[in-house]
């Protein structure tokens, strides 16, 4: 498994294409959840090309199932704050080696310089039914925050058949539209950033930090 702290991610060149960040709410078929809302509304935006792919992904879901986005773009300041906070949490649990700290932290928060959310390329999202109720995914979005790290990997063992079915549906839907998953987090998908380029074999990333 390649983590975001892997030096190969930072080595991927970025040929910034200049696409704007656009409002996810401009696509009525995609729901936006306010739990990560920030004052500037950054969380509700993503690159135009990524939103187009998300729109097409939503169109392939079975009737009565939709996408619920929890977070899109994130500022570099906020990313750095979250990374430092998570490293602190790990430090308090007894990890002191800086290399180990960075490696372990990057399982759940990206180092700022390669962060897919800061490039407007990443979406934290889940599936909902026709009433907007979240489907059983076998664990919450950002479940690591409440200490449930076991259920976070896309391929976490021990899920119920229903949760496995729902994760597989999300994975087929997002992969089919060109996104790649961060394997430690079933809810995190990105398109066009450095991690995406490394995993897909693209020569460069289209989106750098914005
Ligand atoms: C913490 C989670 N919501 C998240 O965004 N994780 C990835 C790895 C990130 O920080 O880019």
Automatic annotation (TrEMBL):
Keywords: Cell wall biogenesis/degradation, Dipeptidase, Hydrolase, Metal-binding, Metalloprotease, Protease, Zinc. It catalyses: D-alanyl-D-alanine + H2O = 2 D-alanine. Pfam families: Peptidase_M15. InterPro entries: A_A_dipeptidase, Zn_M74/Hedgehog-like. It comes from the Bacteria. This is M15 family metallopeptidase. It comes from Kitasatospora arboriphila.
